[in-house]
Design goal:
Helix content of chain B: over 70%
Largest interface: A-B, 50 and 45 residues
Shape of chain A: elongated
Number of helices of chain A: 12
Strand content of chain A: under 5%
Oligomer: heterodimer
Distance between the termini of chain A: 38 Å
Number of helices of chain B: 8
Structural class of chain B: mainly alpha
Structural class of chain A: mainly alpha
Largest sheet of chain A: none
Largest sheet of chain B: none
Radius of gyration of chain A: 21 Å
Number of domains of chain A: 2
Chain lengths: 221, 165
């Protein structure tokens, strides 16, 4: 396969045709990144259809990004997008798993390793995975700027992710202070740590689901 | 005699399949959960694999790591199998004919076989290399095969969608 055609962008997730054809799904699931020649009015209409909260400067930025040589280069390299998506999923799995492993220790459902040691050992993996997640995510945004940046679900995802990052940093700081065991620093600290660990995991799960979460709008609406 | 094609046609017409393929959100919702579940399976397995290979977590015991990771791995795997089956019903004939999809399951079989050999043979002697020592070559090889397989499973899973025309 030489060039990435527009049709591949229309259904990159293998959504069945009959879904793509059914009413609202055309706009939410399958709207293609209008490749280069798209009038600004059409772009604004399309963004309104996505119901994204974007002002004119944002729309202008998306339009500029879509016509930029980087965006074109990404879209014209057929293997790049599936590769980025694959790396994105793998890195996402590592982020979730690191949080799960830390939580297991916080909830005292895991071995003898001191909690502070586990946090110090695992968090660098999380930040590395997050760096890969961000880098691949940026390339994917570049490939479909309008479908991402002007999309409400995507904006919600970015918000959840920002909160998840703050929560992870806070959890790391909290857990490093509770050395070596939450139990030894009192019952209250132990409960706070358990809840904070669960909340952080839920935030990351939320950010993951919101990544492909345009369907949520269809369930609600 | 009932052929595979007949069976797939039958699957396609079941109420569940009709829901998944015609609902505006069913397919996408299942796909989101499927990807999430597969990501967790990969992440948990990767941690065990990296420990076996000797790249990460060398201070912690292999048995402890396996005990912690396995329930999450199997739960996530079960979830990915259920959601994956439902996704399959939406377009069974197309998936069946999809080369990337076939590769994905061939590699999944390889990963399963690798896990079986590791569990039944190599893991029996785990007491000798549980911690503070290098894992024997059979264990390191099993870790490498597993890690490579799961990366390929995710890649072919993603590529499957690009072959659905």
């Amino acid at each position: 396969m030489g060039r990435t055609s527009e049709s591949e962008h229309q259904r990159p997730f293998g959504v069945p045709c009959n879904v793509a054809k059914s009413g609202a799904a055309v706009l939410t699931l399958a709207s293609a990144p209008g490749i280069v020649k798209q009038s600004s009015q059409a772009l604004i209409d399309a963004s309104n259809a996505h119901a994204g909260h974007a002002g004119r400067p944002m729309i202008a930025f998306v339009q500029w990004l879509q016509g930029s040589p980087w965006s074109l280069a990404v879209r014209q390299t057929s293997w790049l997008i599936p590769l980025m998506q694959t790396l994105h999923i793998l890195a996402n799995g590592l982020v979730l798993s690191v949080i799960i492993m830390i939580d297991l220790r916080v909830w005292r459902r895991a071995g003898a390793e001191p909690l502070s040691d586990r946090v110090r050992r695992l968090l660098p993996w999380l930040w590395t995975a997050l760096a890969v997640l961000t880098a691949t995510g940026l390339v994917l945004v570049l490939s479909t700027p309008r479908r991402t940046l002007l999309d409400t679900t995507f904006q919600v995802k970015m918000l959840i992710m920002a909160v998840a990052i703050v929560a992870t940093v806070a959890l790391g700081m909290l857990l490093r202070r509770i050395a070596p065991e939450p139990a030894t620093t009192g019952r209250m600290t132990s409960i706070v740590a358990s809840v904070a660990g669960a909340a952080t995991l839920l935030l990351w799960l939320g950010a993951t689901i919101a990544g492909r979460g345009r369907w949520i709008a269809n369930v609600i609406g | 005699m009932l052929s595979i094609t007949d069976a797939l046609h039958w699957v396609e017409r079941t109420p569940v399949a009709v829901f998944v393929s015609h609902s505006t959100w069913g397919f996408s919702a299942l796909l989101s959960i499927h990807i999430l579940a597969v990501a967790v399976v990969f992440g948990m397995i990767a941690m065990v694999d990296l420990r076996l290979i000797g790249i990460a977590g060398r201070q912690s015991a292999v048995t402890a790591l396996c005990r912690e990771a396995l329930p999450w791995t199997w739960s996530a795997f079960a979830l990915s199998a259920v959601t994956g089956t439902l996704l399959f019903t939406a377009q069974p004939l197309k998936y069946w004919a999809n080369d990337a999809f076939r590769m994905k399951f061939a590699i999944l079989a390889l990963a399963g076989l690798n896990m079986l050999v590791f569990q039944l043979i190599t893991y029996r002697g785990v007491a000798r290399w549980d911690r503070d020592t290098t894992v024997p070559w059979a264990g390191r090889l099993a870790g490498a095969i597993s890690l490579g397989s799961w990366i390929a499973i995710v890649a072919y899973g993603r590529w499957t969608a690009y072959q659905m025309t």
